[in-house]
């Protein structure tokens, strides 16, 4: 009995399918209704399922955009780092060019032969404040030769070896330099204090040095040529007892940061 029912259902399905797909007039109207119904249902279903899928696609596209943007940011950072290093290199080259120009200007102002040397260290064992340079007697360096930098006076050669030399800087307590106050008829002796400043001594109280005055070498001590910048007056004490002023001077050349000096060979 069950087999007959199954067979009947199959035959009925075939007949209905035949009537629908062959546009048989009797089946055309129900087919149109069913087709419209299923079309609306399928349309709604597609919209329902398409909304989350659209969101998924949007989020995926956004994710891809973020990945690309991150890669671009990394590339831009690399380029910025490269540009920063290039700018630093150019600044250093500019500083070196300025130093070289100043060295050339100094060479034009005096008749001394000039030997450029690199500062390779500082002698911390000596009683004197000394820096060490990479030039010695093989390069014509001798003791008591003046040493300068593009900024000003550094000191004098205290000890000369074949390949290196020790330079006693003007900050040393054994250093004494005959100087003028630039633009004024004032003369004194700039002595090292062992610290970052110098003392300008033997300037009488009736003379008028001022803060901001520049000191230059007088050329009368037999070591340093005339006219080399030495330092600037930063303090003038008129209240101290005695007939001389107490004057503090800051050197133009800071020996602790020098990487290059010039030895003036007679």
Word description of this protein:
By secondary structure, the protein is of the alpha+beta class. The chain has two domains: 92 residues; 155 residues, Thrombin, subunit H. It is built from two helices and twelve strands; from the N terminus they run ααββββββββββββ. Strands 1-2-5-4-3-12 form a six-stranded antiparallel beta barrel. The longest helix is centred in the N-terminal third of the chain and has 85 residues. The mean pLDDT is 80.
Task: Set down the secondary structure blueprint.
Elements: H1 2-21, H2 25-109, E1 113-123, E2 130-133, E3 146-148, E4 153-160, E5 165-169, E6 176-181, E7 186-192, E8 198-201, E9 214-217, E10 229-237, E11 246-251, E12 260-265
Antiparallel strand pairs: 1-2, 1-12, 2-5, 3-4, 3-12, 4-5, 6-7, 6-9, 7-8, 8-11, 9-10, 10-11
Largest sheet: 6 strands, antiparallel, barrel
**The CATH fourth-level homologous superfamily of the largest domain:** Rod shape-determining protein MreC, domain 1
CATH architecture of the largest domain: Beta Barrel
Structure classification: alpha+beta
Strand content: 25-35%
Q: Can you tell me the number of structural domains? A: 2
Query: Please, how many helices?
Result: 2
- Helix-strand pattern, N to C? HHEEEEEEEEEEEE
End-to-end Cα distance, whole Å, is 135 Å
| Major beta sheet, strand line-up | 1-2-5-4-3-12
- Low-confidence runs (pLDDT<50, min 5 residues)? none
Helix content: 25-40%
Query: What is the name of the CATH topology of the largest domain?
Result: Thrombin, subunit H
**Apparent shape:** elongated
Q: Give the class-level CATH name of the largest domain.
A: Mainly Beta
